[in-house]
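ZP: hey, is the adenosine-5'-triphosphate complex queued? I don't see it on the tracker
AM: it wasn't, my bad. submitting now with these inputs:
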Amino acid sequence: MSENLLELSGVHTHIAAYHILHGVDLVVPRGQLTMLLGRNGAGKTTTLRTIMGLWRASQGRVTFGGQDITQLATPQIAGLGVAYVPENMGIFADLTVKENMVLAARGARNVAQIDSARLQWIFSLFPAVEKFWNHPAGKLSGGQKQMLAVSRAIVEPRELLIIDEPSKGLAPAIINNMIDAFAQLKSQGVTILLVEQNINFAKRLGDTVAVMDNGVVVHAGSMKALADDEELQQSLLGLAL
Ligand SMILES: Nc1ncnc2c1ncn2[C@@H]1O[C@H](COP(=O)(O)OP(=O)(O)OP(=O)(O)O)[C@@H](O)[C@H]1O
């Protein structure tokens, strides 16, 4: 079994006439939390969408668990055990929290068909999901919506969880809850890839880090090494952690 659950090598992505990714090399080690950092427009979201097959790589290779997934369709990639929470979170505002969860569980037509031990575990990670179970998801706060989005992604067992900016717009107290939840998920053996702008969040949770700029990964290594090196942070991100 390879130590890297996900690997991108030399990935190029074009969006219409624009050449966005210019040969991305990225590894996500199994069982670890990998942070993908970089300035606005560096290509982080495009990288996540390319992994999920939402954009098609024009060159290069994406492998998951050793299998080449570069040409697979998004539902096939999800079916292998990859969950993706996009920046807009993909929840249905007019439906209740419960209905959002039922829709996320592919095999389920009602709550009774969702694994109840798993649901209890999700409630323990994100109490707001239980508290607002029968409320329309659109009425939740930003943090609660984000928690619902992550809950939907883990309603079935997943090997890899990919989340675009989970801390965006959240209050510090909510961010702390989110950090606890990700730490627990990781302790359950879930491999996680996060895009982050919140450097503190990245520093507290990341095992591994990759930094993008202009459509390529310009730095990869341990989060701690980057967190301890202010000069490197300045040169890569234009700020100190
Ligand atoms: N649909 C699109 N059409 C044209 N250009 C796009 C499209 N989506 C993204 N881009 C461009 O691709 C580049 C990378 O965008 P991407 O969203 O991947 O960056 P990012 O690192 O996630 O940045 P941010 O943190 O601002 O979301 C940017 O220059 C952006 O303008």
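AM: back. The beta strands are 4-15, 18-29, 33-38, 57-64, 67-68, 82-85, 160-164, 191-195, 208-213, 216-222.
ZP: great, adding it to the tracker
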